[in-house]
Amino acid sequence: MLTRRALNRALLARQGLLQRHRLGVEEAVGEVLAIQAQEPVSPYLSLWSRIDGFRPEDLHEAFASARVTKATLFRLTLHAVRHDDLAVFHRALQPMLRGRLAHGLTRRAGVTAAHAAAVEDEVLAFLDRPRSNAEVEAWLDEGGHPGRGLWWALRGHLPVRHAATGGPWSFGLRPAYVAAASAPSRPDQPAAHEALTRLVRRYLGSFGPASPVDFARFTKLPMGPIRAAFAALSDQVEILAGPDGKPLHDLPDAPRPAEDTPAPPRLLPMWDSVLLAHDDRKRIVPEAYRGAIVRSNGDTLATVLVDGFVAGVWRPVAGGTEVTAFETFDAATWAALADEAALLEGLLAARERTIHTRYHRWFADVPAAQVRVLG
To answer: Which of 262, 263, 272, 268 shows the shortest CA–CA distance to 321?
Structure first.
């Protein structure tokens, strides 16, 4: 039976958090599977915590050349993925992405699934170069369509990506969109099943051992297709007993280090995927701290890992990096965190230090055993 510490070490090893890996950014993004990219800075911080010698300009170039792409994917939120993975992931996630058409905003605008399907090809042709939200909405309005509601629905499930728009982290807060493929992902059950099966296998490689329920939590896909995809992989995976005795699936050759493998302190960005990839998050987030880092509207704070588990939160402030510890850290842990903060300061100082400031309000009520500014 796997313990929570064993699951923790497996997750950290696969995510480059036991030791930073010497990889290019494209390889590292593939290893992680998908990097949360709701904030422009997030992919940079995620890769900084995982790549030995990470250079932000390498990720900037990968975004600019579309070798790494930013698109609406898992849980209808923005993620950065390898360009070669985008089409497969997009097709696998269509049932969830197209669910946006049922949203109240589209209904109030008079948008139906048939209405959306009738204009998908034209919209993709219009997106032959980067277009802003305002440009697409105005173009749809001119064509006699409800521009705002229709584009809001379409951009959730069409194969489009965000175009790099400059700024210190490659993307500004006003996005531009460009077609990522020549045709939309039409409903196609065999192709969708194949894509979903491939995605499940990749997910297990990055986040396993895991259950179908874990995968459902990460993707927001319905359980029926998920169970079918896991069943299709039955001859390629092994079944292990989790801490509660329930079965977990994993790839036979995936890393599972000993549970006493040392795990150095790490500073993770907001919404880091390791915090959101499982239904049972106790493999990395102690239950007592879950409410402290995941706020009422879903904001997930930038976290501090100590011995592989969430043990605090951090934010940039005047003079350095403020670390709020949920428990008392020893001198060696503070020294290791100071080293991490010094590396982080080098990254931020060269580009932009005022990140995540609009989320600082959540720090008013986090549990604080110790608070230090690491300069």
So the answer is: 268
User: In the chain, where are the structural domains located?
Assistant: 15-179, 285-374
Q: Is the pTM of this model over 0.85?
A: yes
| Helix (H) or strand (E) segment spanning residue 371 | strand 370-374
Whole-number Cα distances in Å, 156 to 8, 23, 149: 33, 31, 11
Q: How many CB atoms lie within 10 A of CB 274?
A: 27
CA distance 119 to 114: 9
Q: What is the 3-state secondary structure (H, E, C) of 66-104?
A: CCEEEEECHHHCEEEEEHHHHHHHHHHCHHHHHHHHHCH
How many other CB atoms are there within 10 angstroms of residue 212's CB atom? 20
- Let me know if 338 is exposed, middle or buried by CB neighbors in 10 A (0-12, 13-18, 19+): middle
pLDDT in tens, 306-319: 999 999 999 999 88
- 205 by Cβ neighbours in 10 Å (0-12 / 13-18 / 19+) ranks as middle
Q: List all residues 6 or more positions away from 339 whose beta carbon is below 8 Å from its beta carbon.
A: none
3-class SS at 18? coil
- Listed residue (345, 202, 207, 230) closest to 280, CA to CA: 207
Instruction: Tell me the residue type at 339.
Output: D
Q: Is the dihedral of CA 236, 242, 245, 248 positive or negative?
A: negative
Q: Give backbone dihedrals phi and psi of 77, rounded to 5 degrees, phi first.
A: -120, 165
CA–CA gap between residue 269 and residue 185 (Å, rounded): 32
Among 43-57, 88-102, 222-236, the range scoring the smallest mean pLDDT is 88-102
Q: What is the pLDDT of residue 153?
A: 86
Quick one: average pLDDT of 346-368? 90
User: What mean pLDDT comes out for the span 90-100?
Assistant: 89
Across 63-72, 138-147, 174-183, 235-244, least confident range? 174-183
CA 111 to the chain's CA centroid: 29
Q: How many residues does the chain have?
A: 375
What is residue 54's three-state secondary structure? coil
Among 360, 338, 308, CA closest to 10? 308
Secondary structure (3-state) at 257: coil
Element holding 286 (H helix, E strand): none
Token output for 142: 């001119």
